[in-house]
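Anyone up for a design puzzle?
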């Protein structure tokens, strides 16, 4: 059974000299860095944008009717003036 284990590299050795050598190796440093790196947080789902409040079709129709009425009245008024 190996005495020296580097868990982050899955490296095992019986010899301390090898272990020391491993500990200063670039490969080990990289693995160590990667292990210590905080995991990037999963991006939260973007919230769906709230739909702009639209007047219901009924209200829209009503408004249009009002406009038409006003326009007709205005036209009649103009005719009367002339
Ligand atoms: Zn290592």
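Challenge accepted. My sequence:
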């Amino acid at each position: 059974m190996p005495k020296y284990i580097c868990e982050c590299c899955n490296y095992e050795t019986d010899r301390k000299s090898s272990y020391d050598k491993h500990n200063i190796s670039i490969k080990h440093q990289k693995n160590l860095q990667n292990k210590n790196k905080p995991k990037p947080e999963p991006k939260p789902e973007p919230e769906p944008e709230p739909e702009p409040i639209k007047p219901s079709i009924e209200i829209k129709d009503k408004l249009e009717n009002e406009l038409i009425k006003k326009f007709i009245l205005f036209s009649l008024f103009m005719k009367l003036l002339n």
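A detail worth pointing out: The chain has a mean pLDDT of 87.
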